[in-house]
Write a structure and sequence with these properties.
This protein is α/β, with parallel strands linked by helices and 347 residues long. The chain has 2 domains: 117 residues, Winged helix-like DNA-binding domain superfamily/Winged helix DNA-binding domain (Arc Repressor Mutant, subunit A, Orthogonal Bundle); 202 residues, Rossmann fold (3-Layer(aba) Sandwich), CATH 3.40.50. It has a 7-stranded mixed beta sheet, sandwiched between helices. A two-stranded antiparallel ribbon has the order 1-2. A hairpin with a 5-residue loop joins strand 8 and strand 9.
Length: 347
Amino acid sequence: MIMYKVIGKNMPKTSPELIFRLREGSFADDLFITAVSYFDFFNFLKKHPSDFDNIAKSLNIKKRPLDVMLTLFKSYGFIMEKNNKYHLSDVSDNYLTSQSPFDLSSFVSSLKNNPVCSEMKKVLITGKPANWAASKKGKRWATSMEFDDFAESFTAGMNSRGAYLANGLLKMIDLKKYKKMLDIGGASGIYSITLLINYPDLNAAVFEKPPVDKMARYTINKSGLNDRMKVIPGDMFKDKFPGGYNIHFISHVLHDWDFKEIKFILKNSFDNLEPGGMVIIHDAHINATKTGPVSVAEYSILLMFFSEGKCYSIDEMKKILEETGFKDIKYRPTILNRSIITGIKPE
């Protein structure tokens, strides 16, 4: 189904929030069970309130998955951070430590033979994403997207998600003074289509790697926006972004990658964006204190498990943008715990 038909019109009065959370938070419980069962995390922290590096070294957990795990447990109220050290909360002290008569650790660990927990343990130790869908013959997400069947199915799902989230985006951004937008890693182009429908003077191009570029062409053809929208095939890690655009729109892309790759993408953006142009990062972001929102912390587990990324905090994104050269960094919440972070390239 091509979702552009209902963008901005006849939107349901109900919210899909629960459906989003069930899908995006589906691996948070497995991480919790793994931390209790295989790393004895809460007993360790009771005996040794520790800083980030000591936890990583003592429990042999890589930094990216550890950051995601600690953020989740802070959002659940299981741990607290004071003076750069992590401590148990009363809840975890009462119910997740062996010295407590109410210890539920064994109750939790009764599920440790879940195959996903075994995969989760590997991700924590190696820092590398699990095989897609925990299949022995699975492929990394980025590699899987090179196969037509997977790319078509995955893009259709993201298309449906985007049709809803795009309406929240519209309420928080004003693009009247901009004329040309490059939608980086834009998949089907659903967000560009939304913006073009609402900004008749705006033109756009979707920069996407084959074979996903074919999905974008199909969606654009169905939208009737061929005269204002096109597809530019390319690899954001190998090719320079095409020049002449004063908006770079990046939605739900950066969360698939680690810091090194994010910095590379944003440097590519800064170098090729028109002076005075704006970069728009649309995603689910962790708050500045890394204590939530809970649904975003849960979503970060899925990203950590299947990709090389996570949900980044507002402060992490601001820092990278500033280091890249962008100015006037602003954060705006949209809907369903999504948000945009914008930056301007100086003239």
